[in-house]
């Protein structure tokens, strides 16, 4: 586990961002000198929200689980509502600018009563809209996870294997608000698909083995002809990565750490490789090393790579990988966050071609933070791989 003081830069950043978001929303939605009661209530709501949000995030990782679950549910739901309200308020700025321009041009008389009415009406529409979208997002995130079928054809995939079924789970995020009962349902759904192979592409947990071991234990119930494989995501490194790697091995999950294995036999086989998370180099003995992962492979065999972050695709496409399976992005989780994800990762969700290589980026099976998904539904991905005709 990381020492508490290593999180100080993140906490400082989070406090600054949280404070800025809350002040912006207060200024746009609640500051109303002509409505003293509304302004007073609004100021308290946004002030308390700005203070409790970072404290709640800390509490969700450190309080006893029953209390942490309640704290996380409240704080992260509020965080999601604030994010949605921020984007909606930001989208209203052109309207405000147009009204200000009309007033400055004397096209519309400067009537204080009308101006206040329009401002309050706009704030009300945003408030009601944000609550509605947040409610939809919660219903989406908490609904049973759907199976998303994806078909890919690879040049060197052995024809003798026919249609090879890989079930991908990613960004499960077992933690304060996602538990073993939920995971058990996901595992049952995966087994119904009768996969040839299960690939878990990181961010499985948000907490230690001591806290979450009993919840993650349901992974031992996964059934796949060629086994269950795992690569680390960035959140494993916040949760005691070495202890989790040992626990997964105990549960019968094969962890691929900058290495590859052969799936199948003889000519009817392909290579499956996996690398550590892109950002794990700061942890001794960890760090993505694709060269090492591919060392000794047979270049005549098809190669499928598991890598948590899709940005690994740039290097993988130059190394003979036929298909990369990734997660990390959550598909943006709450629209329009995906636009910012694309700036950082280059890919958001779905199937992309990078040179001669195919990349599939999962929207994720669980969620992180706000129990909401808007425009990026959770998925259990059923990837059916065939030989390219």
Automatic annotation (TrEMBL):
Ranges of residues in domain Calcineurin-like phosphoesterase: 164-331
InterPro entries: Calcineurin-like_PHP, Metallo-depent_PP-like, Metallophosphoesterase_sf
Residue ranges of the TM segments: 7-26, 41-60, 67-91, 121-147
Matches recorded under Pfam families: Metallophos
Keyword field: Hydrolase, Membrane, Metal-binding, Transmembrane, Transmembrane helix
The keyword Hydrolase appears for this protein: yes
The protein's name in its UniProt record: Metallophosphoesterase
Organism: Pendulispora brunnea
